[in-house]
Amino acid sequence: MARRRVKKRTHVGANNGANPTAKGKPVDKSPKSMVIRIGAGEIGPSVSQLVKDLRLVMEPGTASRLKERKSNKLRDYTTMCGPLGVSHLLLFSRSESGNTNMRLAITPRGPTLHFRVENYSLCKDIMKAQRRPKNAKQLYMNAPLLVMNNFSTQPKPDDKTPPPVPKHLESLVTTIFQSLIPPLNPQATPLGSVKRVLLLNREPPTDPANNAYTLTLRHYTISSKVTGIPKPLKRLNQAESGEKKERRGRSLPNLGKLEDVSQFLLDGDADMGNYTSASESEAETDAEVEVLANTTRKVLNRSKHQKEMAKAAKDGKSGSRPGVEKRAVKLTELGPRMRMRLIKVEEGLCGGKIMWHDHVQKSAAEQKELEKKWEERRREKEERRRIQKENVERKKRERGAGKDDEDEDGEEDDDGEHGEDGGDYDIDDDEYWDSDVSAEEAGADDEDEEMEDGG
Fold this sequence. Notes:
This protein has 9 helices and 11 strands. The protein folds into 3 domains: 28-155 and 162-221 and 331-361, Rossmann fold; 226-330, no CATH class; 363-400. Strand 3 and strand 4 form a beta hairpin. The protein has helices at 45-57, 74-84, 123-128, 167-178, 231-241, 261-266, 302-314, 364-409, 431-454; strands at 33-37, 88-94, 100-106, 112-121, 145-149, 196-203, 214-226, 288-292, 324-333, 337-346, 354-357. The chain is an alpha+beta fold. Helices cover 31% and strands 18% of the residues.
């Protein structure tokens, strides 16, 4: 009999489904996200393009090819977050009044930040406004560098007014955004892998009567050039190294009209030689940094290395830094841009106790009453879970007792009601499951009605 063919390119090999998270293999704990359109195409083409641009920002730890449907609900996405290892959800939607909303939620149990997108610019709009836009696939191979500015505010000594957002919620918002991007280890991360910057800036309130929590989002690419080298030498180095031309006709200079190469290096003519005006000089020193140059070095043993160090100290070069070069750092915007206003903070995943609201202010008595309601709902939920657990244990005992009776009587199982699959617990058969769902939905509706009445 012929041997059955095993597909090795598209299927798992002979072990037939080896566990990728087995012992000895590291588990990737970097944050992963999903940028989702709630309602699919109903939110409009502009917001749909904004979602695509934001997926590029979150690369490579995001679902870049996610396809939404109008019939998809939030529960469909939260169900798959666990198996796929998704830690954050960015949900975009549009209200009936035309406002664009964004929700940033941490799976599986929250909290959730609700933002209103006041204005935004797409990547294509920013690229049209630039003279030399930059956009390459190599930029999105690694996660961006997260820079957060002005997230924690210090109250003034003479100011007795309460802050617009409590301190513990400010730290919560900061922690959520920090967990959105993988952390950067300066000692282990190569500088060449950091090619993008994600800037989040909290704008100070312009109107004293309106202390809104407003954030602006910017996305840049990082480029660096060697400084401290005259322009003629740069042109010669560029021609020798074979780098890509930045401008047409600038790769190899024409020296046919000169008698000596020194005229090209030392002449004051701006067209051929060195620069003479401040407008043609290098970038300002504020944007310059010192980095170690990529040079090939010979590996020395300890004795030879000590001899080299002693020789350098004897020559008076111990304080110098060999292999250090100055580079000018430049940021070019990639997009998109967003200006967001924090509306409310929820305790759960898009449904739960509201910890803070921008438009609704509750008194101390109203807050205590809400705390009592949520505490009662929590006790009811724990009671339902306890009853469900008892039902599971009871069905397991009944199934075990049935098997023991069959072994004693010597009868075969007819694979009927108590067959292989008959004893498995089905949560749909539990009468408390529907009441749990309805109670949670009713609780969410009651909370929305209370917030609207409070407004």
